[in-house]
Amino acid sequence: MERKKYYVNVGSGEISQIKYDNNDSFTIYATDDEVVMLRAKLDNMAVDANRTFFRSHVPIMPYHNDKSNDDYDAEMVEAYRILHELGDETTKQFINSIGILGDNHM
């Protein structure tokens, strides 16, 4: 399959072939299937973020025992792993610099 250039903004969950405003936090080259996989990760992060928001309004549930927080973190690490794998050199360098993937990607 042909790889196409995409611009990704993790914060907004945007994946686009058109550079617009601030949607170019990361640049990747991906097949259609790889974009679908990344989209699923970003969508899962949004679902987990909503669950975490609602949990935050229940005072008897401590933050450190909240499965939705753990799920969000796991999805975020996986999304960054995909971005690192598909990203251009600038994307890879940035992800390496923040250390989210541990030492095995340096």
Automatic annotation (TrEMBL):
The keyword Hydrolase applies. It comes from the Bacteria. GO terms for molecular function: hydrolase activity. Keywords: Hydrolase. This is Hydrolase. It comes from Ornithinibacillus xuwenensis.
